[in-house]
Amino acid sequence: MHGFANDIDNFLPFVPQYATDNNKLVGYMEAPDVLAWFSENPEKAAKLPPELKQLGKLKMDDNPVVMILNLKD
User: Fold this and answer.
1) I need a labelling partner for 62 at 20 to 30 A (CA). Which of 23, 37, 54, 73 fits?
2) Do the beta carbons of residue 10 and residue 60 sit within 8 Å?
3) What SS3 state is found at 21?
């Protein structure tokens, strides 16, 4: 998988699909990909902040997880 490595909390890499006019990059991950990461990375998943740990409860047919990155000026 290509993208920006997440060196803050070691979660999934950020793969932008498009940029907005107000300095944001937007990407998404399908639920099965997120769930696969959790099953393949239990040690990293245990160290995630609570709001990201919640993503481990997704169902295979849930909507994609949308990620928005704010670019610095």
Assistant:
1) 23
2) no
3) coil
d(C-alpha 72, C-alpha 59), whole Å: 34
pTM: predicted TM-score of the whole model, two decimal places: 0.85
Express each pLDDT in 19-33 by its tens digit. Answer: 999 999 999 999 999
Tokens 């990293």 belong to 44
Quickly tell me which residue has 């704010």 as its tokens: 70
- DSSP secondary structure letter of residue 69: E
Q: Is the per-residue pLDDT at 46 higher than 90?
A: yes
* 32 residue type, one letter: P
Can you read off the two tokens belonging to residue 70? 């704010």
